Amino acid sequence: MTLQVIVDARRARNHLLMSQPTATQVVCNYGEAWAAGDATTVLSLYHQDLTLDWPGRHRLAGVHAGQAAAVEALLDLQAVTNRRPVEIVDVLAGEHSVIMVVRERWTTNPDDPDAASIEVSRALDFTVLDGRLRSCRIFEADQPSVDDWIDRFGVVSEG
């Protein structure tokens, strides 16, 4: 009887492991949803304990721990940059993390082609837990430009 319980437990564990998407699949699903503007899917892929680690000297820099804090920081970035994906350059999978290299366009006004804008290249270093993004460390290709943009255009108006 005890042996059968052990065998059943192993089968259940193996089934659970097989039904979980790989870390690379999760990151690719996230990238596809982000590129498509599918906020519902993007949010569904955030782990409740998501930690976002942003470099730099700008006001958004630092660690944003927990899904609510990370989403708030991302919404703040969106308000400052009107960012849009230009290209997912590559996805690099390792044993402990998956890195997505991306290019984004930031602009002060997405409806005005003459508005101030920059193209930002960055690497997003993800870890995945339970089929969701657990952490993301951001590496900017041009950190001074990111800092300057957020310092220059990142004043949130009180309304």
Report what the structure shows.
40% of the residues lie in helices and 35% in strands. The longest helix is centred in the N-terminal third of the chain and has 18 residues, at 2-19. The mean pLDDT is 89. The protein has a 6-stranded mixed sheet. The chain has one domain (22-153): Nuclear Transport Factor 2, Chain: A (Roll), CATH 3.10.450. The protein has 159 residues and is of the alpha+beta class. The chain is globular and about 65 Å long. It is built from 5 helices and 6 strands. It has helices at 2-19, 23-36, 39-44, 67-81, 143-153, and strands at 46-54, 62-65, 84-93, 98-107, 117-129, 132-140.
Rg for CA atoms? 19 Å
- The overall number of domains is 1
**How far apart lie the N and C ends?**
67 Å
* Count of individual beta strands: 6
Q: How would you classify the quaternary structure?
A: single chain
Number of helix segments? 5
Q: How are the strands of the largest sheet arranged?
A: 2-1-6-5-4-3
Give the helix/strand class. Answer: alpha+beta
Question: What's the shape?
Answer: globular
Let me know the average pLDDT: 89
Corresponding CATH architecture: Roll
- Helix content bin: 40-55%
Largest sheet: 6 strands, mixed
What's the CATH topology label?
Nuclear Transport Factor 2, Chain: A
Strand content: 25-35%
Highest-level CATH class: Alpha Beta
Return the string of H and E elements. Answer: HHHEEHEEEEH
- The low-confidence runs, each spanning 5 or more residues with pLDDT under 50, are none
